Amino acid sequence: xxxxxxxxxxxxxxxxxxxxxxxxxxxxxxxxxxxxxxxxxxxxxxxxxxxxxxxxxxxxxxxxxxxxxxxxxxxxxxxxxxxxxxxxxxxxxxxxxxxxxxxxxxxxxxxxxxxxxxxxxxxxxxxxxxxxxxxxxxxxxxxxxxxxxxxxxxx
Length: 155
What we know:
mainly alpha; about 160 residues
């Protein structure tokens, strides 16, 4: 049992913070859409943004224990994190629109189901960004940006 916990430790911790982010997402969506009467896609996108800011901080600090190295690497990590999550937002918005507008299901039930599917997609992509094995990707992108800036400066 202990071996399995150690082997899947990051997944367990990610699941806890992912669950908290999903609850935050559902609550913000419900407040914006059901209480404030904001359009379903706008409410869903705002809920996504707040939940993903929370997720970025939690994943960096508690799940993958990625240390702050420099402002540049922090910027690269946050850009990678949010850019890969945009795919999840697109899936999220499509799922919400289909479930609520086309199938006329309850928006909160659709949102909860949506968060389960999106959570799995997010775990796979987030692991690639913060894991120690892929930190070379962030460094490569930082170096590439530096080379582009130098090239543009010389022109």
